[in-house]
Design brief:
The complex is a heterodimer. By secondary structure, chain A is mainly alpha-helical. Chain A has helices spanning about 5-35, 40-50, 55-70, 70-80, 85-100, 110-140, 160-185, 185-205, 205-220, 225-240, 245-270, 285-290, 290-320; strands at about 270-275, 285. Chain A is built from 13 helices and two strands. By secondary structure, chain B is mostly helical. The two termini of chain B are about 45 Å apart. The chains are: A mainly alpha, B mainly alpha. At the A-B interface, α2, α3, α4, α5 and α13 of A face α2, α3 and α15 of B.
Chain lengths: ~325, ~500
């Protein structure tokens, strides 16, 4: 396999890591007003991801950085082409990150309610935006020969890419509910499980619609395998939830998103961003890759860096592995 | 305004804003890790309280640094796609390394530090503090290596009109970077130093007349801050001089612009301050107070070196890089227009002076603080805490001015040509910008500026609240003796959002 292809897989892997890890972070934020009936319960929910959300978010930054380093043309064309959706994602991520850190810093009901609202909005917009951008990269933009977007600011917003937006948001919702079932105690956990089980068939539907659409338009033979695996995993997750096995359900949802990411990126390859006006203008793995030297340097860095990240992030999850309940939450203490 | 101007304003605003949070994070996180080390080694409660208090302020600031940084990572591709395509082969590598090596460590170990006070053994918890504070320094290294490449491109060859990296080692050990990195890190420490001095001086003064159980906390913080500020300024002066000498060779236009030096001089005098218009169109109107031959010495360690003026350099640049922008449609209204090789002299001239002046002011405050607290003394004059509180702003101003000077001094280039580098490895800022509609860039400019302004107000409000709250507000609450609620103190989390 050529280094260009290896790096295509690495970029896909970073996006998968992001979708998996921030998927449940976003889900937790979406469920804040649904599951959290009082402030203590909402604090339980936020604190299930308290120590890890920032590290999870770095996967997005590194996915972007890896695209810049390995496929500058992909990074440049996609991010300038889907300008406004990406801007919305950034604004939402800014608000959400600050809200986590600031919500408990003042002892006032109004203060916390305001920041909770920011968390909820900041947890809905990014999965919608990321889903839209990912669907755009698979389904293409009208690109001219220089790789620049032809047409107005809303070329990235079409019914297919909106389907991608709903797909990632729907997955995040279920993933977050399954995560909360696993990370909380008692009644909260039971309610989370109930929501996950009830929401799953509806919430995952857009994701499978997107996968079928992509498979039908751009798919190759082998991408049917991960697509099929995702379907099986979704059914498994549903039955496991019904049986009360939240750990297995959460793992099965991980397989769903992995299968989905492999299908999407597998269908995209060897393009990285197809042109919808002229196939000759499509950006391809070989066409926009950095030089072999740069890819070699980056491969060494990733070879040492990525396993280390997996080890110490895994350790963090281990350190904070205990379920959290309302009785764990200390009283608010602010000046 | 055209997309180019809007995109430049946006990058300037978001970067200057980001760099208000960043130096405080870098300097304070290392100092807090040091405080915690002192506590773990001596068991002295004073250091524990220092760690808790300054650590809390660090976290309030860190959140804003993180979220404003995300914008930076994507802005290259969004607003500067032609630039990203041109330099991606070499510029993307340090950026991706920063993410893989530094950002992951920072974010993960900061989470462990915040939430791990009761979950981790003391020494492991301390190691987390060191991991994230050193990672903040490492991220500064990588991003400054990337920026320095734009100032002085090295380690590349030109293939198909684009720079292609041939040595990552050359990029990471660029002499421009090796001077810029200690200079920037020292600038970060001077921010943290002034922060410590200002807040500690205010607390000492506030309780000067009563017995204050936390007086030792504030005295140690004040002394630590003052020493840090003085040492940081020494590093700033030395590395600043190194940078000046590199600038003389690598970016002579930036050096001439720093001095608003219109005509080539030999020996060249250093202008301390100017009265009149320094914009360079009519040099004869400007009265400056000069130190003879000092600029020659700063440029080349020799009192008689010739330093080229703006007028001569414009001629040299026109001969080498053309007098007019090429007639490319993507250059918009600039296509075919004459190229202005002269940076905005009032900005570079005053930026340079504000940087040095405010930097020296903050170092002076450090020396003064050390003198006033010598041998166990506590200053009780009202003017000192007032000055110290105002002094918190000085290194922030110096840092911003320094960066504005550095970045605006290389215009009209986004990648400045390296005089001893490969021909053709340079790029005009006008060619770097994305093909966006003005509506798109107006939207992002207004949205980001508004959001940043609002969050800036919130951050200052919170910092002020926690500063006023003092040590008691950051220590875990003392359990009430007759508290028989269902909260079991051994079971609650040490920290929860």
């Amino acid at each position: 396999m050529s280094l260009e292809t290896v790096w295509f897989c690495v970029v896909a892997l970073f996006w998968l890591g992001y979708l998996f890890l921030e998927g449940f972070d976003f889900g937790v934020g979406m469920l804040l007003p649904i599951l959290g009936r009082d402030d203590t319960e909402r604090r339980v929910l936020v604190n299930t991801i308290g120590p890890v959300w920032d590290g999870n978010e770095v996967w997005l930054i590194v996915a972007g950085g890896a695209m810049f380093a390995a496929f500058p043309g992909w990074y440049a064309s996609l991010f300038s082409g889907a300008y406004l959706p990406l801007l919305l994602v950034l604004l939402a991520l800014i608000g959400r990150g600050v809200a986590f850190e600031y919500r408990g810093k003042v002892d006032s009901v109004r203060w916390r309610r305001t920041w909770d609202r920011v968390i909820v909005i900041g947890s809905w917009i990014p999965p919608l935006g990321v889903g839209l951008v990912l669907a755009t990269t698979v389904l293409g933009l009208p690109l001219d020969a220089a790789g620049n977007r032809v047409g107005g600011p809303f070329e990235a917003v079409r019914w297919e890419t909106l389907l991608g937006a709903v797909a990632v948001a729907g997955f995040s919702f279920v993933h977050g509910a399954a995560f909360l079932a696993l990370k909380t105690e008692g009644e909260l956990s039971t309610r989370a499980k109930g929501i996950a089980a009830r929401a799953l068939p509806v919430a995952l539907l857009p994701l499978f619609a997107l996968l079928v659409l992509v498979q039908w338009r751009e798919g190759v033979g082998w991408t049917l395998v991960p697509l099929f695996a995702a379907v099986v995993a979704a059914v498994t997750a549903w039955t496991r939830l019904a049986r009360g096995r939240d750990g297995q359900a959460f793992a099965a949802l991980g397989v769903v998103i992995a299968g989905a990411a492999i299908t999407l990126f597998g269908a995209l390859y060897p393009d990285v961003l197809p042109s919808t006006v002229d196939a000759a203008n499509s950006l391809t793995v070989d066409g926009v890759a950095s030089s072999p030297y740069t890819l070699k340097v980056m491969t060494w860095v990733a070879l040492f860096g990525a396993p280390a990240v997996l080890i110490y992030q895994g350790w963090t999850y281990w350190v904070f592995r205990k379920r959290i309940g309302t009785h764990h939450i200390p009283p608010v203490h602010a000046p | 305004m055209e997309v180019l101007e809007l995109a430049r304003w946006q990058f300037g605003i978001t970067t200057v804003y980001h760099f208000l949070m960043v130096p405080l994070t870098i300097g304070l996180s290392v100092l807090v890790a040091g405080m915690q080390t002192a506590w773990v080694r001596t068991g002295d409660q004073r250091y524990y309280k220092m760690t808790k208090f300054w650590g809390k302020l660090l976290l309030v600031n860190f959140a804003m640094g993180v979220v404003t940084g995300i914008v930076q990572e994507f802005q290259f591709g969004m607003n500067w796609n032609a630039y990203s395509r041109f330099v991606g082969d070499v510029f993307g590598a340090p950026l991706a390394m920063e993410g893989l090596v530094a950002f992951f460590v920072e974010s993960t170990f900061l989470g462990l530090w915040i939430f791990g006070w009761d979950r981790l053994p003391k020494k492991v918890h301390l190691a987390c503090a060191w991991a994230f504070s050193l990672a903040t320094v490492a991220s500064a290294y990588f991003i400054l290596a990337a920026n320095s490449w734009m100032q002085h491109p090295v380690g590349v060859e030109l293939v198909d009109g684009r720079p292609r990296m041939i040595s990552i080692w050359a990029v990471l050990t660029n002499n421009t970077a090796l001077a810029a990195i200690p200079h920037t890190i020292a600038g970060a420490f001077s921010v943290a130093a002034a922060f410590l001095v200002g807040i500690a001086a205010w607390h000492l003064w506030r309780k000067r007349k009563e017995a204050d159980e936390h007086r030792a906390v504030w005295r140690s913080s004040l002394r630590l801050g003052a020493w840090t500020g003085v040492v940081a300024f020494a590093v700033l002066a030395i590395t600043g001089d190194m940078q000046g000498k590199l600038m003389f060779e690598q970016q002579p236009m930036k050096m001439a612009s720093a001095e608003a030096l219109c005509h080539t001089e030999k020996p060249a005098s250093f202008s301390i301050i100017a009265i009149g218009d320094v914009s360079g169109k009519n040099c004869e109107d400007v009265k400056t107070f000069n130190v003879p031959a000092l600029l020659s010495f700063l440029a080349h360690n020799d009192f008689s070196t010739e330093v080229k003026g703006v007028e001569q350099l414009i001629g040299e640049y026109q001969a080498k890089y053309g007098t007019h922008y090429p007639d490319y449609p993507e250059l918009g209204e600039l296509a075919g227009k004459p190229i202005d090789y002269q940076p905005i002299l009032p900005v570079t001239y005053w930026g340079f002076r504000i940087m040095i002046g405010f930097g020296a002011l903050s170092a002076g405050a450090g020396v003064l603080a050390l003198w006033l607290t010598r041998r166990g003394r506590i200053p009780d004059t009202k003017w000192f805490p007032r000055m110290a509180l105002l002094g918190i702003a000085t290194p922030f101003i110096a840092n911003s001015a320094g960066w504005i000077f550095t970045e605006m001094g290389r215009q009209p280039f986004v990648v400045a040509p390296n005089p001893s580098g490969v021909d053709g490895v340079w790029m005009f800022t006008a060619r770097a910008v994305s093909n966006l509609t003005t509506g798109e860039v107006w939207t992002s400019l207004i949205a980001l500026t508004t959001l940043y302004a609002a969050l800036g107000v919130v951050e200052v409000f919170l910092l002020r609240k926690y500063v006023r709250g003092g040590v008691d507000a950051v220590l875990p609450p003392k359990p009430e003796p007759d508290d028989d609620s269902d909260r079991d103190s051994g079971d609650t989390l040490a920290f929860a959002y």
